[in-house]
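Q&A log
Question type: sequence-to-structure
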Amino acid sequence: MIYVLRLLDKPDAAALRLRVRPEHKAYLAKVAERIAFAGPLMHDDGVTMIGSLLAIDFGNRDAVHAWLADEPFTRAGLYGSVEIHAFVNLWPQKTGFAPAE
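Response status: OK
Response body:
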């Protein structure tokens, strides 16, 4: 089942996010085949990252929590708010994706 993780950063955590981001991206790469979508949540200015939105296929909620516990942003204490929801994708994506290379 796909689980959507809505992860909001603690206030004033931009420097921490940027410092740990390479580790975070490497950790995501390990589950790349199971990712429906993933990316940073942005402030309305379109520049400032304020969190993460991930949709990843996991066997169950316990597996989500285990994966998230070892996620680099989590270990660094970046997130101030975490929401996890089961998700069923009923609409094919047509926008919001980078062009194929």
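Response note: The chain has three helices and four strands.
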